[in-house]
Amino acid sequence: MSDLGDFGSFNADADTEDGVSADAGGSSPSSSGETESSTTSSTADGTSAEFEPTTVEPSGDDVGIGAICVSQGLRVDEDGEDTTLRAYVTRGNRSSIRIGSYLLAPYPDGETLFCRITGLEYAQQYHADDATEIHARRAMRTDEIDESDYKFVASLEPIAVLYDDSTEQRSASNRTQSGDDGELKRRMTDRVPKPQTVIRRADDTEEIKTGLKIPDDGVFLGHLSVGGEKVRTAATPPTIDYRLKDEYDAGDPLVFRHSLIAGGTGSGKTHGAKNILRQYLDDERTYPMDDGREVSPAVVQFDPQDEYAQMHDDNPELDDEFARRLEREDIAYGGHDDTTAFVPKVGSASYAAGHHRAQQVEFTIPFAMVHDNPWLVAGSGLNDNQYGALVSVLLPRFRKQYGNGGTYEEFTTFLDDPALREELDESGRVHEATFDAVRRRVLGFGHVFDQDARPITELVHEFVRPGGLTVVPTYHINDTRATEAIVLAVSSLIIDQKLSNDPDYDRIKETPLVLGMDEAHNFLTDADSVQAGKVINKFTEAAKQGRKERLGLFLITQDPQDIHDAVFKQINTTVVLNLGDKEAIKSVNIPSNLESKVPYMEKGQMVVYSPDNSEPVELTGLPKCLTRHGRD
């Protein structure tokens, strides 16, 4: 093969062998290389004459980034898979185009198609083979890439048609210029754009929020993003805030339709959860009750890592400039003064709280709560027969003998009576083997029930406070069984009172309440035991009736696949941060185009899937926690 070095040594100004300049019979590129061409020709006397340079590009300024093309079809179909919508992107705009970017294609009558880029490709401009030695060597010897031989085509997914509800249809830009107050609305895509329609980036906040069905007001979650970069507009602030509906005028507030935050270790899960909870604790946030009162919500957060009591304190890293930005965007920030750590008393375990300044109150679980929730005292799996013996025979017999105030110690003494065992066996009420199995499984809770602290049932008025944050830390408890018993006992107390038509504690019934549970997979998992089934049933009922009773579940987990389906199906808002496990990603049921992004998201990046609030979107959370976060 011949050496291609002659391409590098060629000089257009050098003389040829016959002494004639190399440009005598050819053309010389203009300085732009694209916009002009000129031709020289020999005259009769041997001199050369130059023709007038001509423009080869259209006159005027470009508008938009390209145009709808029909070379491979132009079709909008009810079945998204049959939709064919593509746009040619001009060379100057190609480097800035990203998959997921939002675009607008106007119709002649003033309506606009709002769409999203789902694919990008280079295609051959001319029928030529560029997989050759010459093309490769030429590319290796230049610092620039020439795209003039290639088409750059974007595949588009239509999301909605935007229209002005005023009688005269106008585009968003004209409406702004004329000062018209017509409201921009959306509907399903029901028409195809015209060929050669100029497309442009969506850079207006109202257009983007309307197109994605994002509400203007509500609970702040983060800023709209594409590929980890915030979507920018020409407005001030340039970012687009994403909020959850929080007014009854727009349907039930989504807080009472339950939320799930899923993310792996280091994904910013707790950081994000704190920022969201801080919005629910805003002084101005209230919900109407049946009696006409407007009441601030109470937040009860179970905290296995002892991080949420820090929400009492300000974040020292939150500077004045960042605070002013938060105020402009109406985002609540700063430590919440009404934060109390209710610390469960378990045996000799001690709670150290040098990392926060929240008030601390010790409490214990009274054994009397077991009468309403027998599964609390079952340390491991009981079969139906054993659970029936505990509920129908042993606990009622104990209650009759010791009264409602009987303690756990008295209950174990009660079960140690051999005469009772023999009596129940001979009467056929409880077989001796079943009696022994129940006794073995209820042992080992002596450090959980009836400790030297006030019972939680006597602290309900302080535990549930309108506008207050109650944190239940369990990090100091080394016994997993004890932790589960405490969390389930307290959460069951709240749920039972919320769902009851004749509650013992009106404070719980009459207060809007957000029940937060970190590491929710440890408590709401599918397991082959009677008590696990009872727990799932209780939380499922809470999830189903939460809207009516103003009870919202706020679940946080790194293993969403372990949460029982009956509870998961009631979740309306799913916030997904970085997850590396394929099974976990698949379980959160987000659209496939966003699902593929989850393993690559950086800390603080998230996907929000809330069908009753907006289209599925990608967000970037705040870079700083709104309250204190992390230990020194």
UniProtKB/TrEMBL annotation:
Which terms in the Gene Ontology molecular function aspect does this entry carry? Answer: ATP binding
Q: Name one Pfam family in it.
A: DUF87
Region: Disordered, residue numbers: 1-64, 165-195
Q: Does the keyword Ligase apply?
A: no
Cite the record's Basic and acidic residues compositional bias ranges.
Answer: 182-193
Which SUPFAM superfamilies has this protein been placed in? P-loop containing nucleoside triphosphate hydrolases
Q: Which UniProt keywords apply?
A: ATP-binding, Nucleotide-binding
Polar residues: bias regions: 169-179
Q: Where is the Helicase HerA central domain?
A: 253-472
Keyword Nucleotide-binding among record annotations: yes
Composition skew (Low complexity), residue ranges: 21-50
Q: Under which name does UniProt file this protein?
A: ATP-binding protein
Species: Natrinema soli
**Mind giving the lineage of the organism this protein is from?**
Archaea, Methanobacteriati, Methanobacteriota, Stenosarchaea group, Halobacteria
